[in-house]
Here is the input.
Amino acid sequence: MDIFFVLLNIVVLLAIIGILITMQRKHVTFTKRVFTGLGLGIVLGAVLQWIYGSGSDVLATTADWYSIVGRGYVNFLMMIVIPLVLVSIIQSIINLEKSAELGKMSAWIIGILISTTMVAALVGIASATIFDLNAEQIEAGQAEQDRGSSLEATLDDVVETQSTPQKILNFIPANIFLDMTGQRSTSVIAVVIFSVIVGIAVLGLRRKNPEQAEMFTNMVNAVYAVVMRIVTLILRLTPYGILALMANTVATTDFAGIIELGKFVLASYAALLTMFVIHLVLVGVFGLNPINFLRKVIPVLGFAFTSRSSAGTIPLNVSAQKNSLGVDEGIANISASFGATMGQNGCAGIYPAMLAVMIAPTVGIEPLDPWFILQLVLIIGISSFGIAGVGGGATFAALIVLSSMNMPVALAGLLISIEAFIDMGRTALNVNGAMVSGTLTSRILGKLNIKTFNDKTAIDDNQAA
Here is the structure.
């Protein structure tokens, strides 16, 4: 009988996918299809949990089958991330007139990412204070205790065994083929560094041996065209991937845990929304319409929210910046790549700050002490380099920050039941921060296509396909 219900659930998913396919054939816009998939996924997940219960075998088996569509789509995006970063950054650099432009682009992008992360830390501190969050108020069950022990073990294995210089060395690729497999949390940054070196080498070669440089440039341009075509094909699957991801997320969410820790959930999303508003204010300060910006990034944020993967969102991020926002191609590639591994406003900014404020009273620290706040913000800014751009990156960031502040990391395990739900909002904020950094950098350097940015009908060509 269980098999019958599982098959029935699969048929329902396929039927909804059929609706989305019909919408595409009728040329319904990409944004509408994405949000239709998102909405139907929420409804489907809620119905499944209501019928079967979050702990049922039928629901667990159904989620496994749904993952073929949902996580399969994320895997396709992750598959193309490294080739896209590698080729697009090389291609962007060799098309620059002067190598000095690369330094300006990178400096502005990194500066915006890190400075907004430090602002996000202040927002997290304020939210935790306003909502009066305290780790002692949360009851630790067996799952929370196990999670705390796991975090302490992770700290011993990863964080405390590495000095700050060693962490910086992790950015430098020793084996580029290993980093191309994405096996390290800093793999994307390592590939970016390698790509930059290759690009600069080609610029130097162009002065000494222009024929060979031209041959290599033509090869890179051809590979780039193929990679972007692959991106186009994968992005067409976005509505279906979001549908399955959202259905699984809602169906398996521990709503009892969310209700129990409701104050932390509210405080987290209050901080996230506040930071979103700050992003829009920054866009407005630089003479751009924040509403236009929001309308054009929402489909990308929708995927980031459901997938919980900043790295997996890179292809959508780059494509939307170029085609919807009018951001310079090179800046879009670099900002999306950097934003997936450093200066993450949600995971590396708000979350560690809120945890630190929650835990401070348990070790006799006054969380509103100016020296404590200054230390915390600076440590968050420095440690926000090299945060893994996949689900769980916030935990790694929290381990670094809490250990640097000499605070017990085990107490972070108290939030295990709501971790995934909050991580969705954090990831969306991370990606939005990357897109803001690209847009503002392009604006500052005079490379933003204002006509495209202001054109309400300008949408991502890849997404519309």
Observations:
- The chain has a mean pLDDT of 83.
- DSSP finds 21 helices and no strands in the chain.
- Residues 57-94 form the longest helix (38 residues).
